[in-house]
Specification:
The chain has 3 domains: 1-54, no CATH class; 83-300, Rossmann fold (3-Layer(aba) Sandwich), CATH 3.40.50; 350-451, Orthogonal Bundle (Arc Repressor Mutant, subunit A). Helices cover 52% and strands 9% of the residues. It has 18 helices and 10 strands. Strand 9 and strand 10 form a beta hairpin. The longest helix has 48 residues, at 57-104. The radius of gyration is 39 Å and the shape is elongated.
């Protein structure tokens, strides 16, 4: 045995093993070495003239790759664990905010100043009763009213006054903003997917179910409703205002919300209240099996009475009684129209000009409905108009029978010349300004003065 054993490299076809061993001259006999050391020395000893030993390049590459992979895995684990911790914390915080919001209620803001707000205490009290359900209530509500009757304002007032347990969701005209509307209502932002989540989504199967933001919010509300009922022994309420936006843009969403309202009413979890401004919404909802859990008759918010209208014009707008009567005769108790003509009148615009502006607007509705001379529904329209002037309202079936088919009747109803009332299942003129136009243009419809009646809005 030489005075110094060199480093020995052992290579085989599968692995490269580096054996480094060094013995200083210590006078230790070879016989005292371990059997393995003796074996190595006998089998693989080299002479002093052997070439310098070198570490295999493959071995170096393996070491480097192993180190890099270890570093990458460590980094990934760091970010994944960070994402998980953040997501968990954010989820718990959102849950806290949601439960707090349900406890306190959304309490939507009222954007009308007191000096222009028309008080309707009877309607508000009726709405407040709806928003405070009993423990075992098993139905949802539909509230209807023509555009401009003030139903949104009244619903917001009632929701704000009841407060606790009432979530108010304003359905936007742009359904791309629906998720944000739900997020605003329940007081937390719907989180974007994290970097890790996006990476995991790419490798997941496309067959996995995908949920929109509003569906996630609705799911969160279901959970919050269970927490609220367990604490207060009564269901919370979700108000969906302006659902008419859904019937034109995405009826499927309306169907999902109605189905969920039905199932929730069955389970006594939460009570849904749908607020709409068009007859097409109740007609669609009534045609589905989920209607079995709707509270009937449907509540309808109508126009102001003449007394309420005159009080608004004279006391709140400071208009003389004689002029107030002219304005009311023109547009009736439709608050949005009443406010518009009052604004114009107080701005110094002559009544005749205001009247012509209203008539021009109404004529466009008749044109859209094709009820004018030489238009598709002129003849049938004359018959409907005459009967409505005689009786004020027609049964829904009676109205439909004037037309050749259901589709034609529905098409005319959607043009806002006539109005469907689900509470009574009747059809009437859409507003007093419609009837005023007919009186001013009686010859178009072959109507004689004796056919007209003075109709006061209840």
């Amino acid at each position: 045995m030489s005075s110094l054993d060199k480093a020995v490299i052992v290579d085989n076809e599968k692995d490269s093993v580096i054996l480094l061993q060094e013995h200083a001259e210590s006078g230790v006999p070879k016989s005292l070495c371990s059997p393995s050391e003796q074996k190595i020395d006998i089998s693989f000893s080299f002479t002093n003239s052997s070439p310098p030993l070198r570490i295999s390049e493959v071995s170096i590459l393996s070491i480097v790759l192993s180190s890099v992979m270890g570093l990458v895995v460590s980094i990934l684990l760091f970010f994944v664990s960070g994402d998980v911790i953040y997501a968990f914390g954010r989820s718990k915080y959102n849950e806290y905010l949601l439960n707090k919001t349900v406890e306190e209620g959304t309490r939507p803001k009222i954007d009308i100043s007191d000096d222009k707000l028309v008080s309707r205490p009877l309607v508000v009290e009726r709405l407040k009763k709806i928003l405070q359900p009993d423990r075992d209530q098993s139905y949802y509500y539909l509230i209807c009213g023509e555009h401009g009757t003030g139903k949104t304002t009244l619903t917001r007032i009632a929701s704000s006054e009841v407060g606790c347990g009432v979530i108010y969701v304003d359905i936007p005209a742009n359904l791309n903003e629906l998720g944000g509307a739900f997020g605003n209502a329940i007081n937390f932002a719907l989180e974007k997917v994290s970097v890790t989540g996006q990476w995991l989504r790419k490798i997941k199967s496309d067959d996995a179910p995908k949920f929109s933001e509003w569906e996630k919010a609705l799911k969160a509300l279901r959970h919050a409703s269970e927490v609220y009922k367990a604490k207060h022994d009564k269901p919370m309420v979700i108000v969906y205002d302006n659902v008419s936006h859904l019937v034109h843009e995405n009826q499927k969403i309306l169907d999902i919300l109605q189905d969920d309202a039905k199932h929730s009413a069955d389970d006594r979890k939460y009570i849904a209240v749908f607020v709409c401004s068009e007859g097409s919404v109740p007609r669609r909802m009534e045609s589905r099996s989920a209607w079995s859990r709707a509270k009937t008759p449907v509540m309808e918010i109508g126009d102001l009475s003449k007394e309420e209208s005159m009080k608004y014009l004279i006391k709140k707008r400071d208009i003389k009684e004689v002029d107030a009567n002219k304005l009311f005769d023109l547009v009736g108790g439709r608050i949005i129209e009443l406010k518009t003509v009052a604004d114009d009148f107080l701005a110094g615009i002559e009544f005749e000009i205001i009247k012509q502006q209203v008539l021009n607007k109404v004529e466009k509705k008749f044109n859209t409905a094709q009820l004018l001379r030489k238009q598709l529904y002129h003849e049938v329209g004359k018959k409907v108009i005459k009967d409505l002037l005689d009786s004020k309202e027609l049964g829904f079936t009676t109205f439909m029978e004037f037309f050749d088919n259901y589709e034609e009747a529905s098409k005319v109803l959607e043009t806002n010349v006539f109005s469907y009332h689900p509470e009574k299942n009747t059809v009437s003129f859409q507003s007093q300004s419609i009837e005023f136009y007919i009186r001013e243009n009686a010859k178009i419809f072959n109507i004689f003065p004796s056919c007209f009646k003075i109709i006061e809005v209840d």
